[in-house]
Amino acid sequence: MIARAERLQRISSAVFYELEAIKQELRQRGVAVTDLGIGSPDMPPDARVQEAFANALSQQGVYGYPTTQGTMSFREAASAFLSIRYGVAVDPAQEILTLMGAQDGLTHVALALVDPGDIVLIPDPGYPIYEVSVHLAGGVPYRLPLLAERGYLPDFGAVPTDVLSRAKMMILNYPGNPVTAVAAPDFFATVVDVARRYEIAVIHDAAYIELVYDGARSPSFLATPGASGVGIELHSLSKTFHFAGPRLAFAAGNRDILSALQVLKSNIDYGVFRAAQAAGEAALKGAEESIVAMRTQYTARRDLFVSSLAASGWRLTPPAATMFVWAPIPGGGDSRLFARQLLEKTGVACVPGIGFGAHGEGYVRFALVHAVEVLQDAAQRIGQFLAAM
C-alpha cells in the first residue's frame, strides 16, 4: 500500500464522503434523490455568453497555451465591471489576475504568501477550502467564530494580540457561504484597520456579491479606503453568470499579492482557456440584465422554499443573499445525524453545518439549485420528516 502524504491527514472530507455514499446507494435502489447539497448552478449562461463562447472556438490561436495573467481584453472587462458595479478603480495591467475559478485563487494564495507555522485567520463556519489551503501551505488556521448574535461578523477584539501579531493572512467571505450574511462598509473599514496595524494580507472571497435579495446591494471590500493596500478580492463568474463548468474568475487589488500568486500559478498552470475568457468578457460587459434575471430566479426559489418549510412548522429567516438557506435544526442537535436521516428517509440531501467548522454545528445548509416545483416537493418531504421526528 502506498502511503499518502502527511498533509492530507489534516484534510478531512468524511462528512461529505458519507453523504455522497448514501446518495449513490439510494439512486441504485431507484430512489429519486433531490440534491440540495452542492451549490452548483442549474441554469445556463445567457445566450449572448454562449454565442461568444461558440464564436471564440473557431478563432485563430484559441487552442494554444493562454497566458497566466489572462487576456488583456478580459482583464479590461473585469476592471470596467468593478468600476461600474462598485465604484472600484483598478489597473487591468497590474491589478487584475485571471483565475480558473475562485477556488483556484483560494487554494493557491496561501501557498504564495504563507510559510509553515504562519497563522491564518479563517471564518468558522466557512467554505472548507479556506482551512484546506492553509494546511496545504503548512500554516496554522485560527478560526474566527461567526455567530448569529453578531450578524455572522467576526469579533476582532476577541482575538488575542499575540495571534494578530503572528497572523500572515486573513480570509473573509461576504456575502457568506454558508451563513448567507452581508457585510456593511464599516465592517470592511475595521478589517482594513486591523490588517494595516498587524500587517495581515486580506483575501476577500466575493463569489456571491451579486446574489443579494430585496433590493439590497453588497459592497466590495475594495471600495473601502486603503483596501487595495492590504488585500485582494476574488470574483467568480460561476455563480453570477451561471458559468461554473468552464472555470473562470478573477482576483483584483493589491499588486504584491497578485504578483506572488501569478508567480506561483505560472509554475502550475498555463492560464484559462481563451474561449472561456471571451465568453466571460461578454458576460461582464452585459452584466446588468443577466444579474437582474438571476436575482429574480433565486428570489422566487428562496421565497417558495422558505414559505413551504414555514407551512410545515420550520420557520426560518429568509437569507439576505447567496443561493443557500442556512437553517438552524429544529430543537438543535447533531447536524451530521440530521442530514443523514433526512437523506435516508426523504431523498433530500443537504450539508450538515459541522462540515463548515465547529460553529456550524446545529445548522444545515440547503442549496437553491433546482426549479421552484422541485424545491416545493423537497420542502413537502422535509415537512413530513419533521412531523415524524
Helix and strand layout, with pairings?
Layout: H1 14-28, E1 34-35, H2 47-56, H3 72-86, E2 96-99, H4 102-113, E3 119-124, H5 129-136, E4 140-145, H6 161-166, E5 167-173, H7 185-198, E6 201-205, E7 231-236, H8 237-240, E8 249-253, H9 255-266, H10 274-285, H11 287-311, E9 324-328, H12 335-346, E10 348-349, E11 351-352, E12 363-367, H13 372-388
Parallel strand pairs: 1-10, 3-4, 3-5, 5-6, 6-7
Antiparallel strand pairs: 2-8, 7-8, 9-12, 11-12
Helix pairs in contact: 1-12, 2-10, 3-10, 4-5, 4-9, 11-13
Structural write-up:
The protein has 389 residues and is α/β, with parallel strands linked by helices. Helices cover 42% and strands 14% of the residues. It contains 13 helices and 12 strands. Strand 3 (119-124), helix 5 and strand 4 form a beta-alpha-beta unit. Helix 1 (14-28) packs parallel to helix 12 (335-346), helix 2 (47-56) runs antiparallel to helix 10 (274-285) and helix 3 (72-86) packs parallel to helix 10 (274-285).
Q: Write down the secondary-structure element order.
A: HEHHEHEHEHEHEEHEHHHEHEEEH
Q: In this structure, how is the largest beta sheet organized?
A: 7 strands, mixed
Proportion of residues in helical segments: 40-55%
Poorly predicted segments: none
Assess the beta-strand content as a share of residues: 5-15%
How far apart lie the N and C ends? 44 Å
Biggest sheet: strand arrangement: 2-8-7-6-5-3-4
The global form is globular
Counted beta strands: 12
Number of helices: 13
Radius of gyration: 21 Å
Mean pLDDT: 95
